[in-house]
Structures are given as structure tokens and as C-alpha cells.
Design goal:
This protein is mainly α. Strands 1-2-4-3 form a 4-stranded mixed β-sheet, with helices on both faces.
């Protein structure tokens, strides 16, 4: 970026604060391994884009575009100009040539999304605009531009459509089950894609503290004077390692209906990535280019994903993940540990009038 904060390619009025730019960067540079492997496989499928674009007649994309155009405020030099500057800046840093249209819609719930099949559009709510300061909002805009660069908007639109369709066909026997199975799989992918986009937001804002503040505000509102980053991250640590197998099952049930990971876990994941060698290499200018995407090996990407999952399971402090690790290692006391882990699910028997005939057993 030039010293006066301007770039002579049409992207003007970018902030003067010096930040690195990443010409030709591929989304593979910041994508979470699970997200990346799925996207690489889909991109390599012959005719995949054609099939999905053929669905455009069924998907409500045109309706969504008209809805935002007619009932929201389009960001431009004349409307929400500070957001317009952030959008140009994010596209400049991630080298996204075509700037996606961006809308602000009236909704007190803080939220943002990137949707669209043919072309992505970015939507942010008034609740989010009012909640975040400039640097926090810059990370969010970078987050959404990261979604656009990765091609996530296509799958996000399909997820919205299928979620709506599931409600409409709930009365059809087995029909809803089939659709919800697809929705559940898409949600699992999309949660991983949110971790990817968080990384893109950090690459755009290049201010880890602002990214962390934004996630804290999403969790606890505009009360930063009452919150502490270290304490917030300790919550993620407690969530990951606390409890027993019952809690592990409840965690899975809690996250299944969500499209986004929990805020504390997103913060912990982002902080971990910001301290990694991968992030430093990107900041030093060493990253995969889009021109190399066509040569990307699907098998290599899947191997990276598998290695990442294996590493996560091995280092996890979650009781269920520990059990999986022990199972893989052939732990001898597996059955006993499963029984003790789920003891809390059993309803305690009412006390007897007389002494018990059964002697107490170790671990009860």
C-alpha cells in the first residue's frame, strides 16, 4: 500500500494505517483444513458450477436481491460511506477484483452474511453496525469478503434455501429427514467456513485485538469495560476440557442447529492461528496463489484435513475426544470408563429402608 493510503487502480480512500496487501492470494491460504478439503473437492468436480447454477431457478436468489434492494440501504460513497471505504479496502488487501454489493438491513440482532449464486452480496445488520467500532467492523467486512473469495456464498445460499424448504415439507413422511440430513452436513461445513472467514478478517484488519473485541461483543454486547480477553479465552478452555462424557454429548447436541461456532471457541481458534507459523508466512508474503488453484491436489488436501483432525483429537481435552484417543490406542479399561462417564444419565434409585445387600464398588 502506498504511503498516502491510496492505490492507483480505482480503490481509493483506503485508510492510511499501513497494512500488508496480498496480491493474487488464494483462499487456500487462510481456509480451515476441513473447509479447504471440501471446497477443493467440489471445485474439481466437472460440471459442479453448472449444476448449481441450474438450481438458480429454484433458489430464491433473485427474490433476495430484490428484497435487499427495495428494503435495505445499499452501501456506497453516499450511504454508509465508512463501510464503503472498508469494503474497498478489504477487496484491495485480499485482491478481490470485483467488489461485491453490500447492504445494511434493519435488524437489532448483530449479524452479517455473504450470499448469492452468480455474484455474492454482503449484508450486515444495523445491530452489528451499532455494536462494533471501526477496527472491529473492518475485521467483519474482511470476514465477509473472505467468504466471497472462497466461494462460500453459493453454499450459504443453498443452506438458507434448504433450511426454509425443510420447514415447508415437514409434514411429508421421511422427506424432512432427508433434507435435514443435508442441512446438518452443510451446517457442519459452514461452521468450519466461519473459522476460515475469521482468519480472512484478521488478514484484512491485521489487528488481533480488534478481532477479539468483536467476538467478545457478539457474545456479551457493548460492555467491553466489563469484559476481559484473557478471562474470555479461559471460558473456551473450560468449555473444551470441563465435564464428562455427558457434557461432550450435550455439546454436540447444542452445536448441531447452529450455523456458527460458539464465540469463545472462535476467539480461541483465531488467537491460536494468529500465533502460528502459517499466519507468519502469509504476513511475510509466502502464500499460495490463485493461479495455482487449478493444480491443487485433492488427495493432498484431504490428507491435510485428516492430519488436522487427528491433531485436534489428540490434543483435545474433551472427555469424548480423550475416549476416542484411548480407543484408537486400545485402552484396556475402555468399557469401565464409558460406564462411569454416563453414570449421570441414570436416575438414582430411591433409598431402601434397610441396608443395601450389594457391597459398594470402587468408582461408585
Amino acid at each position: 500500500m502506498s504511503d498516502d493510503g491510496r492505490e492507483q487502480t480505482g480503490h481509493e480512500r483506503v485508510p492510511s494505517r499501513q497494512r500488508r496487501r496480498f496480491p493474487g492470494i488464494s483462499s487456500r491460504a487462510y481456509e480451515h483444513p476441513a473447509d479447504r478439503s471440501a471446497l477443493v473437492a467440489l471445485r474439481r468436480l466437472s460440471g459442479f458450477d453448472t449444476v448449481f447454477k441450474a438450481l438458480s431457478g429454484l433458489l430464491p436468489e433473485r427474490s433476495l436481491r430484490l428484497l435487499f434492494l427495495s428494503d435495505s440501504v445499499r452501501v456506497s460513497e453516499r450511504q454508509f460511506s465508512h463501510l464503503h471505504d472498508m469494503l474497498l479496502d478489504a477487496c484491495y488487501i485480499l485482491d478481490l477484483e470485483k467488489v461485491p454489493p453490500m447492504y445494511v438491513t434493519q435488524d437489532p440482532q448483530p449479524n452479517a452474511m455473504c450470499i448469492g449464486l452468480d455474484e455474492p452480496i454482503i449484508v450486515v445488520t444495523t445491530g452489528l453496525v451499532e455494536l462494533l467500532d471501526e477496527e472491529e467492523m473492518r475485521a467483519v467486512v474482511g470476514h465477509e469478503v473472505g467468504h466471497a473469495l472462497s466461494g462460500h456464498s453459493v453454499y450459504r445460499t443453498i443452506l438458507l434455501f434448504l433450511t426454509s424448504l425443510a420447514l415447508k415439507v415437514a409434514w411429508i413422511p421421511l422427506g424432512n429427514l432427508a433434507i435435514m440430513a443435508i442441512v446438518t452436513a452443510l451446517r457442519e461445513w459452514f461452521r468450519k467456513s466461519e473459522l476460515s472467514a475469521d482468519r480472512a478478517g484478521l488478514l484484512v484488519g491485521q489487528d488481533l485485538r480488534a478481532s477479539m473485541r468483536g467476538l467478545m461483543k457478539i457474545a456479551g454486547g457493548n460492555h467491553l469495560h466489563e469484559m476481559n480477553v484473557d478471562a474470555f479465552l479461559e471460558q473456551a478452555e473450560e468449555y473444551e476440557s470441563g465435564g464428562d462424557l455427558r457434557d461432550s454429548v450435550l455439546k454436540i447436541l447444542n452445536v448441531l442447529p447452529r450455523s456458527h461456532p460458539f464465540a469463545t471457541l472462535r476467539a480461541a481458534e483465531l488467537k491460536k492461528w494468529a500465533g502460528s507459523r502459517d499466519y507468519q508466512r502469509i504476513m511475510d508474503g509466502h502464500y499460495p496463489r490463485r493461479s495455482e488453484d487449478k493444480d491443487t491436489s485433492v488427495s493432498d488436501s484431504f490428507r491435510e484435513s485428516a492430519a488436522s483432525y487427528a491433531s485436534d483429537v489428540k490434543s483435545s481435552k474433551d472427555p469424548l475426544m480423550k475416549l476416542v484417543t484411548d480407543l484408537a490406542g486400545g485402552a484396556g479399561d475402555l468399557g469401565d470408563r464409558v460406564r462411569r462417564g454416563f453414570d449421570g444419565f441414570r436416575t438414582p434409585a430411591p433409598p431402601k429402608d434397610g441396608p443395601s445387600d450389594t457391597p459398594p464398588q470402587e468408582g461408585d
